[in-house]
């Protein structure tokens, strides 16, 4: 199937202090849509891991936000594969309000992990052959590096808990988004408008790890990183605010 679309009603447990969809909940919604499309195409995590010892991993995600939906608002979410190469799938998402106006768009990069060796592996030819590339006008393809944090201005620490772990036996990417957002000053979260969030996922963490999320202010927002107890960089990110 070239693409899938679904209607989704924003629930009370998914909104923030301003009754708007939270960024972690938004990321979870996009991940759910990617999962549903993979099930339709018979390349879900469960099928790939059981039959081929491989599983999907999210490598990069950038979301552009015109506005966030409010509690009880119904939105339509669309996802499709924009393109692929030897190692990565480029998947787009578009979110529309009830009038058909696009309010959110995103581009994501997905790879395949060898679940035995715990490392990236190339896309099998049989998967490439069955993948339908959408004719939909693509979202901007995310690329390039994210600047590193040179001066730590904000920092928070977290212990990895059992409920942070997903079926790949490591921390789900939605948790990284949540931790990153926690290192943004409260006054910005309360009064600012998030325009975009860009994250590169570099390494995994597992139950029992201790992580630190750090942020530094830049001209129009913040740059971020998440490291583990050994100083290994797990995620780099950038948020742009108005």
Q: How does the helix and strand content classify structurally?
A: alpha+beta
The dominant shape is globular
Low-confidence stretches: none
As for the number of domains, it is 2
The CATH C-level name of the largest domain is: Alpha Beta
Number of strands: 11
Q: Which bin fits the share of residues in helices?
A: 10-25%
How many whole angstroms does the radius of gyration measure? 18 Å
In whole angstroms, the N-to-C terminal distance is: 38 Å
Beta-sheet strand percentage? 35-45%
Tell me which CATH architecture of the largest domain applies here. Roll
N-to-C order of helices and strands: EHHEEEEEHEHHEEEE
Question: What's the CATH topology name of the largest domain?
Answer: Thiol Ester Dehydrase, Chain A
* Major β-sheet annotation: 11 strands, antiparallel
Number of helices: 5
Question: Any overview of this molecule?
Answer:
The protein is an alpha+beta fold and 242 residues long. The protein has two domains: 128 residues, Hotdog Thioesterase (Thiol Ester Dehydrase, Chain A); 88 residues, Roll (Thiol Ester Dehydrase, Chain A). Helix content is 20%, strand content 39%. The protein is built from five helices and eleven strands, in the order βααβββββαβααββββ. Strands 1, 2, 3, 4, 5, 6, 7, 8, 9, 10 and 11 form an eleven-stranded antiparallel sheet that branches. Strand 5 and strand 6 form a beta hairpin. Helix 1 runs antiparallel to helix 4. It is globular, with a radius of gyration of 18 Å. It starts with a strand and ends with a strand. The mean pLDDT is 93.
């Amino acid at each position: 199937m070239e693409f899938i679309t679904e209607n989704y009603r924003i629930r009370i447990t998914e909104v923030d202090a301003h009754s708007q969809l939270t960024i972690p909940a938004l990321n979870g919604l996009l991940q759910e849509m990617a999962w549903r499309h993979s099930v339709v195409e018979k390349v879900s995590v469960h099928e790939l891991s059981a039959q081929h010892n491989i599983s999907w991993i999210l490598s990069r995600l950038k979301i552009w936000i015109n506005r966030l939906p409010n509690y009880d608002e119904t939105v339509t979410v669309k996802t499709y594969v924009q393109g692929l190469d030897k190692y990565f799938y480029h998947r787009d998402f578009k979110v529309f309000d009830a009038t058909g106006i696009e309010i959110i768009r995103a581009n994501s990069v997905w790879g395949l992990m060898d679940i035995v060796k715990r490392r990236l592996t190339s896309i099998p030819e049989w998967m490439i052959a069955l993948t339908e590339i959408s004719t939909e006008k693509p979202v901007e393809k995310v690329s390039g590096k994210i600047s590193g944090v040179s001066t730590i201005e904000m920092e928070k620490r977290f212990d990895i808990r059992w409920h942070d772990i997903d079926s790949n036996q490591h921390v789900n990417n939605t948790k990284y988004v949540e931790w990153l957002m926690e290192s943004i000053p409260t006054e910005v979260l309360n009064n600012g408008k998030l325009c975009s969030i860009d994250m590169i996922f570099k390494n995994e963490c597992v139950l029992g790890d201790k992580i630190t999320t750090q942020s530094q202010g830049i001209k129009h927002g913040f740059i971020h990183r998440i490291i583990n107890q050994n100083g290994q960089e797990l995620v780099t990110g950038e948020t742009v605010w108005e």
